[in-house]
Amino acid sequence: MRALGLDVGTKTIGVALSDELGWTAQGLTTLRREEDEEDKDFEAIANLVKEHGVDTIVIGLPKNMNGSIGPSGERSQLFADTLSNHVSCTIKMWDERLTTVAAERMLISADVSRKKRKQVIDKMAAVMILQGYLDHIG
Fold this sequence. Notes:
hydrolase activity, acting on ester bonds, ribosome biogenesis, alpha/beta, YqgF/RNaseH-like_dom_sf, Nucleotidyltransferase, domain 5, 5-stranded mixed beta sheet, 5 strands
C-alpha cells in the first residue's frame, strides 16, 4: 500500500508519500497553485499517483475546534470530489486540526529559520496528516 498525503491550501499543496509498506510518511514536494488553473493541480497529483504507484490519497480536512466543518473544510471536500475525477485510487479525508501548528512548532524546535520554515511548512503538515492516517489504520 502506498499513500499520498495532501495539505491543500489556497496557494500551495503540501505533498507527502508513504513508504511501500504504509508505515511512515516522508515529505515529497510542495506544489504551487495558480488561481483559476486548478486543472494543473489535478494533473500534477495524477502524475505523482502514477509515478509512485499510489493507491490511496489522504487529504487533510480542516475542521473547526468544535468538530464542525467551515468554509476551508468545504473547499477541501470539493477539491477531493473533483480530484476523484482525475485519479482512480481511493481518496480519504483526514482531520487535520492543528497539524500546521504542530509542524511549525516542530520546525521551530529544530531551529529552522523563518524563511526555510515558510518553504517546508505545507510539506511537513502533509507528513503529519498522512502519518496520522497511517498510524490509525496500522
